[in-house]
Design goal:
single chain; alpha/beta; Rossmann fold; 5-stranded parallel beta sheet; globular
């Protein structure tokens, strides 16, 4: 597709990666996947994604935070959705509601696992269609 958006999906759970990739490909996006922070960083050397979706906790507890910061440093205008199972695992809400929290998190949106297709589609569409800053 000539106007397909490039989306990078990073998660250490291959089932989650497959689920998101299937949904995004059905919507006409070009999907690139990685299972680790290192794999994602390798991809980022040759690909500027239009949007990135990354798991908060992968091989290291801070992998998602580190990767998000690196994406924003390389490509500041690339929106990042961070997915997390914190709420499902602990019952506690993980959010970045204040400007201070958003300044250290760097993600443009947080999405709770389990991921619902309609939520993913809505968030991806909203972030891809917003006007550049």
């Amino acid at each position: 597709m000539a106007n397909a958006k490039k989306i990078l999906v990073v998660d250490d759970d291959p089932d989650i990666v497959d689920q998101m990739a299937l949904i995004l490909k059905q919507d006409g996006h070009e999907v690139h996947t990685a299972g680790t922070q290192d794999e994602a960083e390798e991809i980022l050397l040759s690909l500027k994604p239009d949007l990135a979706i990354i798991d908060l906790m992968m091989e290291e507890k801070d992998s998602g935070f580190v990767l998000c910061h690196r994406i924003k440093k390389l490509y500041p205008d690339t929106p990042v959705i961070m997915v997390t199972a914190v709420k499902a695992a602990t019952g506690l809400s993980f959010a970045a509601d204040s400007a201070v929290q958003q300044s250290w998190l760097k993600a443009d949106h947080l999405l709770d696992k389990p991921i619902r297709a309609e939520s993913l589609r809505s968030d991806v569409s909203r972030l891809l269609n917003r006007a550049p800053a």
